[in-house]
Design goal:
single chain; about 400 residues; alpha/beta; eight-stranded mixed β-sheet; 12 helices; about 25% strand
């Protein structure tokens, strides 16, 4: 039986652990439940990229509303890097945080034109990004092949180790008094009088406030109280190679192909970028697809030839949450007093910052950044999901 609590957080990924961290440090009683162990789903299976630039599939949109949607969360991503930097000093271990900047590369003139438009949109929202090519690009990133004719560069981008970082957040929260209940499934949630009653696999718990922080599974949690959250999930795939001497200090993305690439602190190359996995595994995790392994690694070696000399050590799969307009959903839910949503877009990057902002609202404070544009209320007017769905439904090509 779980004891009653002031705040019940549903979800034990980076968002839930960060919420517990920022609430408990300020004396708020908080309990976190997860039907699995902590950090075992999307937060623990992502590649650890810290993104700031508009993602490539959003950079290609031309609809005015969609363009506005791509720009809206940019200040969130910039500040998110500062939060990770602060956590790298606060937490009890080295979380392998690095922010040496990131490139989004182009191989064609059309991709270069899209990068120019993307950078202009980013600069309008205060993001330092610019297109580089020729000798300047060669000096900044001598590891690229001749296939790369230019790239946008953002000095804020970087990486963190998700296997280390989320457990460190949980330990920090526990030291401050937060309680974590692993392998505890939420089966029902209802508001009764002035509290919420949650039926779990370990018994009933009453909470004055509840936070939906279940990432890609948040829609199922929200539906228990009659709330529709426009979020779904996709199964994706990642690779890691053997270690190599320091070569790539930056985060690498591609304007026209599916790729993220970074070098970990132990020298391993981590390669991802949206290649699909097979969700029909019958188990909790999707199956690896050989076509995704081969395609993903081919693109990486095509851009950084030294990768072709390295052996693949491991490949794995995980889920990503897809919010239909690409922006986070943060804050209280109108009409359901005591219910909050903390759902990030580009989730591992912005998770701790989003958690910090929601924790401030739970504590009755004005959030340190304006979260009104990210209220769930915006979906009442209807939002197109065409840009996201088109990207994730189409087959990747080399």
């Amino acid at each position: 039986m779980i004891e009653d609590t002031d705040v019940l957080v549903v979800g034990g990924g980076v968002m839930g652990c960060a919420l517990a961290y920022y609430l408990a440090r300020e004396g708020v009683e908080v309990a976190v439940i997860d039907r699995h162990d902590l950090n075992t789903q999307a937060s623990g299976t992502n590649a650890g990229s810290l993104h700031v630039q508009i993602l490539s599939h959003w950079a290609r949109v031309e609809n005015a509303d969609a363009i506005a949607a791509t720009q809206r969360p940019l200040p969130i991503y910039v500040e998110a890097i500062n939060v990770w930097r602060a956590l790298s000093r606060e937490l009890d271990c080295d979380i392998e945080f690095s922010a040496e900047g990131g490139f989004m590369v182009a191989e064609t003139d059309e991709e270069m034109r899209i990068l120019e438009r993307k950078c202009a949109r980013e600069r309008e929202r205060g993001v330092d990004s610019r297109v580089v090519s020729g000798n300047e690009l060669a000096a900044l990133a001598p590891y690229f092949s001749d296939a790369v004719i230019g790239a946008s560069f953002c000095p804020y981008e970087g990486k963190v180790n998700p296997i280390i970082a989320t457990p460190a957040l949980a330990r920090g929260a526990e030291r401050a008094g937060a309680r974590f209940f692993r392998h505890t499934e939420l089966r029902a949630l209802a508001r009764k009088r002035d509290v919420f009653e949650a039926e779990t696999s370990r018994g009933r718990v009453r909470a004055r406030r509840v936070v939906v922080a279940a990432g890609a599974w948040s829609a199922e949690v929200a539906a228990m109280v009659g709330l529709e959250l426009p979020v779904n999930r996709r199964a994706l795939h990642m690779n890691v190679t053997e270690g190599a001497t320091p070569l790539v200090p930056h985060l690498i993305q591609h304007m026209g192909r599916r790729l993220t690439l970074k070098q970990a602190s132990d020298g391993a190359m981590i390669v991802g970028g949206g290649w699909p996995a097979d969700e029909r595994s019958g188990g909790p995790n999707p199956r690896v697809l050989r076509t995704s392994i081969e395609g993903n690694l081919w693109i990486a070696a095509h851009l950084v030839p030294k990768l072709a000399e390295l052996r693949l050590l491991r490949t794995w799969t995980g889920f990503i949450n897809i919010i239909i307009d690409g922006s986070p959903v943060l804050g209280p839910v109108p009409g359901l007093p005591g219910l909050f949503v903390s759902l990030a877009s580009v989730g591992f990057t912005s998770g701790p910052l989003c958690a910090h902002l929601v924790a401030e609202t739970i504590r009755g404070e004005d959030p340190s950044m304006d979260i009104a544009p990210f209220s769930i209320e915006r979906f009442k007017a209807g939002v197109s999901s065409a840009a996201v769905n088109t990207f994730f439904e189409q087959s990747p090509t080399l």
